[in-house]
Amino acid sequence: MSRPNSFIAIDGSQATTLTYMPHVQPAPLTISVPDQPPTLGSLEIIITNQESTTLDIESIEFIIPVGPGATLTPTTQGIQTAVSDSAKWQIVPPWGTIMNGTASYTLQPATGSSAPLKEGQSVVVQIYSFQTIESPATASIGIKEKIGGATKTGGFDVTTYPYGFYFTGLIATVASGSDFVPVAQVTNPSKVTLVWNSSVVDSGAFKIYYSNASNGQQTDSPEYAGQWTSPEITSDTVFTVSVTVVTTGGAPLTAAMSVAVSVQNPDEVVKLLTAQDIVATGVIEGFGTAPVGTVLDFWVAQGVNLSIPANFVICDGRAISDPQSPFNGKNAPDLRKRFIHGVGTLSEIGSTGGNTNADVRIDSTVNGATGPITNPVPSSANTKAGLIARNVPSTEYRFDLTKSDVGWNDGQHVHSLNFRASGSTNISIMPPYYGLLKIMRIK
Predict the structure, then answer these.
(1) What 8-state DSSP symbol labels residue 203?
(2) Does pLDDT of 174 surpass 80?
(3) What DSSP character marks residue 87?
């Protein structure tokens, strides 16, 4: 198979050790017009060592077809060469002038039988000032490399286009009166008109490819060379325009250009926001999804046939046996009959504590303030009034009669009062709750 681009086709099946990236100037090459000064071209080849070790290069030979037909040039007369590191490398041209057949231009060490090319290093060879042929054609350039005593071959194709060939300037536009205005984004829905420049006037040589998320890739052909109007687009769309040039003596070559157009409020976004059922065959990742290790509350109404979601397990202390889970061989947390308590560090995850009941003890002492005894007073005839007072410095309290109108009472008649109260009981400290099943994502 060949891997085409606009002007060079590289043989994808080549078995060379080094990689070769050729390009031409001018791009593309066009034919020389008879009886006019010849069109001169340049072939530049970048040679790179993409192996993981240094290679000892003995020689690299570029075999160029010369003469009439599917060739690169009609003659080797006037051809010049250059190499990027002339102190290390040299190019040996063919002997004499060749008018028909093949011409070999060989890259070899400037001194010695081989030269090292380190991993990742490149050397550039340029073969320039050659006349182009007078008829469009595709030439096959051969490569023969000798590295470490082994010889391998490969090659690439160079097409010489008809004189004046060009294919440039693809843009997306929308109609505005009698003008086309370039756009990068359009409203939903909208039509866009692609315009481009090309020397090819046959509209049948062009093909339009356009692709979006909802309909995949579609194709169409323009009615006019250089212009095509799309159907209405409702989501971001990529457009590619290709042109195929048929050449004498070689396979047709395709050149292509692409442009993308964004759509405001595309249909796919609306569909996503209003989707009722989303079925995934794999794990859904990204912002908004529960990461592995997340514990969730799960509820199912009585009589509803609903099972635990895929990739989740019940947090009941069970052993996890799933080779695709990072928790394989570990136990799920046992969260039955437990509330969640936030911790501050990773090392505290899994800590337990707390109780559902508590023993409460009451131990109270009456305050040391004093005050008058309220009515009714004691029934004793010798008593009219009194105070409860602390017997300082003791913590006892006493009922102290006053001396008013009671001549024999000296105020020292005391009754001790015990105001200390204590005791204990066991109470429930469980707050009101609603039972939900705790589940954890394991993969």
Answers:
(1) G
(2) yes
(3) T
Structure tokens at 262: 């964004």
- Give the residue carrying structure tokens 């008593």: 383
CA distance 91 to 59: 10
Distance CA 229, CA 223 (A): 9
Any idea which residue has 């009101």 for tokens?
432
Alpha-carbon dihedral sign for residues 71, 76, 77, 81: positive
- Enclosing H/E stretch for 269: helix 267-273
Residues 6+ apart with CB under 8 A from 5: 255
For 304, residues 6+ apart whose C-beta sits below 8 A from its C-beta are none
What type of residue is 387? L
Domains of the chain: 2-161 (2.60.40.1530), 167-268 (2.60.40), 367-419 (no CATH)
Q: Residue 427, CB half-sphere, CA atoms under 13 Å: how many?
A: 7
Task: For residue range 155-164, list pLDDT tens digits in order.
Answer: 998 888 888 8
Given a cut of 50, whether residue 227 has pLDDT beyond it is yes
Give the C-alpha separation, 139 to 410, whole Å: 140
Q: Are 222 and 177 in contact (CB under 8 A)?
A: no
The residue whose two tokens read 């990236």 is: 21
240: nearest Cα among 253, 256, 262, 217: 256
Query: Would you state the pLDDT for residue 272?
Result: 53
Residues 6+ apart with CB under 8 A from 409: 382, 401, 402, 403
Q: 55 vs 6, 52, 385, CA distance in Å? A: 32, 9, 122
Residues in Cβ contact with 134 at an 8 Å cutoff, skipping those fewer than 6 apart:
31, 32, 33, 34, 74
Q: Are 443 and 326 in contact (CB under 8 A)?
A: yes
Q: How confident is the model at residue 289 (pLDDT cuts 50, 70, 90)?
A: confident
Alpha-carbon gap, residue 63 to 106, rounded angstroms: 9
